[in-house]
Fold this sequence. Notes:
The protein is mainly beta.
Amino acid sequence: DIRASRACVPWTPEPCAHTCEASFSVEYMLDLEAGSYGDNAPTLRESETSVASTKKLVGSASSRRALTDYDWDATLTGERVVAKGILWKRKGLFWRERVFLLTSAPRLVYYDASKKVPERKGCVEWPADTPPKIRRRSPSRFDVCVAGRDYHLAAKGDGDDSADAWITRLSRVFSGDLSPKVGRQGWIYKRGGGGTSSAYRRRYAILRGNQLFYYRRPPAQQAVSPQGVVRVLSARIAPDDMPGKAAFTMATDSGRTFYVCVETAEERAAWLAVLPEADPCS
């Protein structure tokens, strides 16, 4: 107090009588958010290899059962399963348990296995020549970043189910060891989406396996993300509704039919030679 001509003594906090140590891991956060899974909540078990009572994530009984008993290759066309496992995918504030398939396309396809027949919920696709960026956050967490979107994923955290194991598998696919080579590439005219749209737009298309990536400009000229990716189930000749062009259609796994034109009948024949052939009776 200066007015009392006394020196000001700085305040010193009392020492804490106990020590505090907190560790917030993805397992802890997932445990807090377990209510968002409904009946598909992650199960916790005691680690058999740790001296401390560290808990590890395991999948729900339905996901573990589907992982081993379900014929996952039957859900795919023109590709094969490279790896599969249970991951937790973040959506907003919550984490959802999903069975993930890494395929030779390459892409990631994920399913909700809480139902009797696993339901496909979505996929993560990218051009084989522009692989996504992978961010490792911890032994149990990693991100897959494609075309401006980040997919936040969590793994069990040990062994073949760890984030590092998944990153290694993805890297192997990115290296081209498992990715299909370019079947054909070139300019096409693709009709716009929607039932009433009839405008054709010029796009540069690259076919890898049965995946068709299309761009505004050739990706070799500039690193660009594709405008879209379609998985072609079959292709056939179509009436030439664009004057002076040769048309064909492509049926896709989304149920949509794509209408495409190219400059000549010879060019159309070259595309049809590398695309899956339509059943003549369909």
